[in-house]
Amino acid sequence: MTMTFINLPVRDLTTAAEFYRALGFTSEQAELDGDSLALTISDSTRLMLHLRSAFEEYTGVAVTDTESNREVIVGLTAESREQVDELVDRAAVAGGESLGPGTTNGRLYMRGFRDLDGHQWSFLHMHG
Known about the structure:
The protein has 128 residues and is α/β, with parallel strands linked by helices. The chain has three helices and eight strands, in the order βαββαβαββββ. The longest helix is centred in the C-terminal third of the chain and has 13 residues, at 81-93. The two termini are 27 Å apart.
C-alpha cells in the first residue's frame, strides 16, 4: 500500500496540533516530545508537523514566507458538500482563515482555508 506524508513547517507544535485535532486529525502521541509530530488524516495519509528550524534542517533551505508566497496547496476529499463546509468552518473557528464560500466546477465542489502558519488547504467533494 502507498502512504502519503505531508510535511509542513510550523511556528508552534502545540497550537498547530490543537488546530489539526479540531479538524479531526488524530495522533497517538499524547504529549509533544521533540521537534516533530505525526497526525493521522486517514489510513494512508499522515501529516508531519515540524518546527520551522527542524524543517529547515531537513530541507537545507529557509522556510517559505506564507504571507507572500505559496509553495503548495494541500487538497483532501470529503464525503459531501456539507462536510466540506463543516471542515472549513471548523478550521476557521480553530483560528484558521476561510478563503470564502465554496465553488462548484462541474462535479467538483471545493472550499479552501489557510492554517495557523499560512499553509493553504482545500477540501473537495466530487459528486455523481
